Amino acid sequence: MRLANFVMPRSGGLRTALRCLGEGYLAAGHEPVLIVPGPTASDEETPHGRVITLPGPEVPGSGGYRVLGTGRRRLTRLLDSLAPDRIEVSDRSTLRWTGRWARERGVPSIMVSHESLDGLLAVWGVPAAIRSGLADVANRRTAAAYDRIVCTTSWAAAEFRRLGVENLVEVPLGVDLDTFHPRRRDPAVRARWAPDGEVLLVHCGRLSGEKHPEVSVDALRALRDAGVPAALVVIGDGPRRAALAYRAARLPVRFAGFVPDRSVIAGLLASADVVLAPGPVETFGLAGLEALACGTPVVVNSASALPEVVGPAGIAAAGTGAAFASGVRDLLDRPEGERRAAARARAELFTWPAAVDGFLRAHGVRAEVPSW
Length: 372
Known about the structure:
Blueprint: E1 2-4, H1 13-27, E2 33-38, E3 42-46, E4 49-55, H2 72-82, E5 87-90, H3 97-104, E6 109-113, H4 117-123, H5 128-145, E7 148-151, H6 154-161, E8 168-170, H7 187-193, E9 199-204, H8 214-225, E10 230-235, H9 241-247, E11 253-257, H10 262-271, E12 274-277, H11 286-293, E13 298-301, H12 306-310, E14 314-317, H13 321-332, H14 336-347, H15 352-362
Helix pairs in contact: 1-15, 4-5, 8-13, 11-14
């Protein structure tokens, strides 16, 4: 049984992870059931398992995120009726009480930490003097509530390790190495988005405050001010789109909006020269890994977990337009064949079968996970 909040209805890294893990659990012979919030109730069978949607309120100012948190009694009844063998929870704030529910019923439980609480508090403007203390209190409670805490990177695990949390494991996520592949590179895509032969940059992600998408626009401005002919394509949507369009006035920034077809996204990523991932609190960064799988190097925010993920196939930069522009120039200075081969090779270290196997082991289930 899996529960998650803050899952966007159409896209997002958490949505991708839930889908791919569900497919892997099915392939390994399990019966995954996922409970998520939505505008209306539904119950359907999908290629990644049964998905139950419960009506949940929209978080004000979030651009569409919903939570299950206000329907605790209803959710408790549902959990009791489903009688899961194990639970896997992807929200350590409003759903933390499910750890107690599981313990009272003898159900093994894990919490997957998809965000840095310390980092989110910083984004929300909480003063540094109290930020770590608040995060430590919440993280101690989370670690005590569940049998195991799963983090996808050492960066994400650091705020638990500093507390001496022992029920902690690290399991990297994976990437679809077939959909996201260098063969998706297409001269026609380049011609459409960079019609004057510019250096093609791509920003792929939700346009919300915590993702710092304005850094990508500022990086483009810095590059062009330095005489580098570059253009930027922004894939994704969100509450910051209007502000970004205003910021990008008179710059060659093209907003692709929400792109539902992953093969189209892969074509853009593979056809780009460099992908930009400026989010400072990313605990893994699937979009950056998908770019690497397409053979395209990435400039990432040095404050996030992404330097750990991209390794030598990318550049870690401070979260400013000038620093990201410098990172782009450094990558472009590398021979194209070398930088693209290094990107693909790095991505091939992260597979979904390995991720599923790691998650099953965290659940105490040992099973061979076939490729799919």
